[in-house]
Amino acid sequence: MIQKGFFRFEESRRYQMKKALRGRPRIRFAPFLSMAVLEMEDTKKIRQETDPARIAVVILAAGLGKRMKSDKAKVLHEILGVPMVMYVVQAARALAGNNVICVVGNQADAVKKTVSRQAQLLFALQKRQLGTGHAVLSAMPHLPANVEEVVILSGDVPLLSVETLKALVKDHVDFQRDLTLLGARLENPTGYGRILYDAHRRVTAVVEEADASEAQRRINVVNAGTYCARRSFLSEALQQIRPENAQGEFYLTDIIGIGYRTKRKVGVVIGENPAELMGVNTPEDRDRVEAIMRRGRWKSVDFMEKKHL
Asked: Which of 61-75, 96-110, 233-247 has the lowest mean pLDDT?
């Protein structure tokens, strides 16, 4: 099923930015393809509205960022003069208001200080960097009691828009899933986790490149590292993750396989414009993202003059 319409970056009351952004560029994005119709033969779409107060966003911002070749925390590297994590915070708050938890670890005080200048968020401390699954587990006790759906974002994906996040949540809720991944189809998928399906086109797992076979590395449908999960499922699945991989880490992606084995509803929404899902892991990635923003006539946000987002 193709969702009609295009996602645009533009000024909106929903950003609650109080004019912190001036002239948001109108960048056209390709439609999103929902894979939900391929998940299970008896899956039916049920249109529902989700109360924003029942959504929370967890931002993963605890990583070391060794490939950035800098002592600065990766999420604090600037793009158009703004720490990249602030673009993610902006989108998260536009989606979930104050229900945003930022997971910090490496240079935790510096990250908290930078973010807190502009936004009153909740912070969760990941004392040891044991993987993305462990990071999300660190955030779970901080979720407000009324939250039912949890969106998980990486703090190093600054191009991701609130329109895309709303489309992800809507697809997730409409199909009454336990877990929905945001994915992309890439000509060169090197470095990304590959999304695996069974013979019935049901999502079975995401395999990281370090753990992938040669056949799996040829798959070009990749995981973008953005998820929407039902809170009850997420709480159960996180407890079942084990560090049985080449890195010895607790991979968040393992919850996909857990969902498949326990016959939960797992699906994918695939974005046809991979640039929006681009992560920043190296100085070269940062330069590419900055070039995309410049081509889109982005204007640097002077966050340092603002008290609140």
From this structure: 61-75
Q: Within 10 A of 284 (CB to CB), how many other CB atoms are there? A: 10
What Cα–Cα distance (Å) separates residue 307 from each residue in 20, 57, 60, 91, 104? 10, 21, 23, 17, 21
pLDDT (average), residues 39-57: 64
For position 256, which CATH number holds? 3.90.550.10
Answer whether residue 21 is part of any domain: no
In this prediction, residue 245 has a pLDDT band, given cuts at 50, 70 and 90, of confident
Residues noted as catalytic: 67
Domains identified in the chain, total number: 1
Nearest to 121 by CA among 143, 99, 141: 99
Asked whether residue 98 is assigned to any structural domain, the reply reads yes
pLDDT at 47: 52
Residues 6+ away with beta carbon under 8 Å from 239: none
Q: Cα dihedral angle (279, 64, 256, 165), rounded to 10 degrees?
A: -40
Answer whether residue 83 is part of any domain.
yes
By C-alpha distance, which of 263, 211, 258, 266 is closest to 238?
A: 258
pLDDT over threshold 80, residue 28: no
Which residue range is the domain that position 147 belongs to? Answer: 31-41+52-298
The CA-atom distances, in angstroms, between 231 and each of 1, 143, 227 are 26, 9, 12
